[in-house]
Amino acid sequence: MKRMGMIFRAKANKALDRAEDPRETLDYSYQKQLELLQKVRRGVADVATSRKRLELQLNQLQGQSSKLEDQGRKALALGREDLAREALSRRAALQQQVSDLETQHQTLQGEEEKLTLASQRLQAKVDAFRTKKETIKATYTAAQAQTRIGEAFSGISEEMGDVGMAIQRAEDKTAQLQARAGAIDELLASGALDDPTGMAKDDLTAELDRLSGGSDVELELQRMKAELAGGSAPKQAIEGGNAGSGQAAPHAEQERPRFDKQ
After folding, report:
1. What mean pLDDT comes out for the span 41-58?
2. Cβ atoms of residues 47 and 153 within 8 Å
3. Which of 55, 61, 119, 196 has the fewest CB atoms within 10 Å, i.e. is most exposed?
């Protein structure tokens, strides 16, 4: 089972490698970094909002504290020490709240500064990654194009391989058809096959051709005999085309008649 699992993972990893496009992976990573940067910026905005709300509360509490202080002074001036004591007690409680809010305000302000600095650093990293990403993508695209051109020139690409196989099949079929046509011509010429168009020779024509071929052989044979014998009559007979016919060839020269002088 472990071996099957390892084989499955190896094949799956190989399939993923073939399907993975580095350019798409880089774009996806850049998109995730942009999302993270947006989250950091929203965090900074949330902290700033909380800090601003604390500042508003501090201003309100400080305003109430000042008002209670004024009321205590007026009550003390009128001889109402009890009212002055109550106003000052309330003011002291407000001052404790103000002190707590100021501590929270300082904490939030520190967190805001840290998040702002982190956002700026992350922004710089995202910008640098974007530049590097585009450079890698351009380099990969150029290398991919160069590889395809090299494969096309060398004939090892899938497209060129298909073209080469198509050319080879076409050449094989052409050679097969040429061989078949030549064989059919030879069979028709020898008479082994009948010509369906009616252009084949009939028996009489074939016989005449055979006799003509045989007479040519006989004429050539008698010409060679005449040359060996040194005679001219057979040669003349051969040239006149009367060999073997039983007729004597006419004399080349006839005697001229004589006329007596008177």
Report:
1. 90
2. no
3. 196
Place of tokens 């910026």: 41
Say whether both 120 and 181 belong to one domain. Answer: no
Q: Examine residue 69 and state whether it is found in any structural domain, yes or no.
A: yes
Q: Decide if 248 is inside a domain.
A: no
Burial code of 192-225, b = ≥16 C-beta within 10 A, e = fewer? eeeeeeeeeeeeeeeeeeeeeeeeeeebeebbee
- Cβ(87)–Cβ(71) under 8 Å? yes
pLDDT tens digit sequence for 1-10: 666 666 656 6
**Residues spanned by the domain of 31:** 2-154
Structure tokens at 82: 């009890």
Transcribe 195-214 into DSSP letters: -TTS-S--HHHHHHHHHHHH
pTM of this prediction exceeds 0.85: no
**Whether 144 and 98 share a structural domain:** yes
